Request: fold
Amino acid sequence: MIDPQGQANKWVKNMEKANNLHVIKQSDSDFVRTLENCIQFGTPILLENIGEELDPILEPLLLKQTFKQAGSICIKLGDNSIEYSKDFRFYMTTKLRNPHYLPETSVKVTLINFMITMEGLLDQLLGIVVSQERPELEEEKSQLILQSAENKKKLKEIEDKILEVLSSSEGSILEDECAIEILSSSKVLANEIQEKQAVAEVTEHKIDTTRMGYKPIAQHSSVLFFSIADLANIEPMYQYSLPWFINLFVNSIDNSEKSDVLEERSVHQWSVY
Reply:
């Protein structure tokens, strides 16, 4: 993961927090030992801050050169053969903005660009400013997103169930009382979910309309960040991280003059910069 702003690192750490994620660097003295333990016990591992060259010991792992030995799936790292757990997950991140990996390296991995975009940063800053100014609004927005995802998941499960009934039914489905009952109950449940989804979408639209009032400050701030980030192209000493900028953004919200008029509030916050 190309991750100059640390977004991928943060995402992986949050996602794998409950699974005892191990975070290592190639320069660590216990790098190989930690890698072997995680592979054997199925613990996820994050190798961060890699450069353009990878340690040769990772070769069998990236190529998934597993083999069976005494009834177990194994892999050879260096001189050691260890058991390979099916639960093992391996993540790598680099802070390089434009790394040049050799073709033979690129074909061994799934390369994901986590470089933040103007639109992505705008959405992130909009969420921050709304959570600071209208926390109840942002909380409701988050709940609606989760509810929408759950509704879509249930609809997909219902569709899969209907297809399974239709494909497994023998003869005329009209004569299969069990199949008809399953299809009828699935249809009722699907209608209920669609009604809930319609209500949620209306509510979400109202929330988004209110949130858009804070968009100008998020838009100005995202432009400011990318302007600051480009200073590194002029002089390498001018390098600023995204966490530093977000901290500055939050401070500007806290320290700016309060106002019940949204337009005035945005101007006051912008002036703090």
Q: What stands out?
A: The chain has a mean pLDDT of 86.
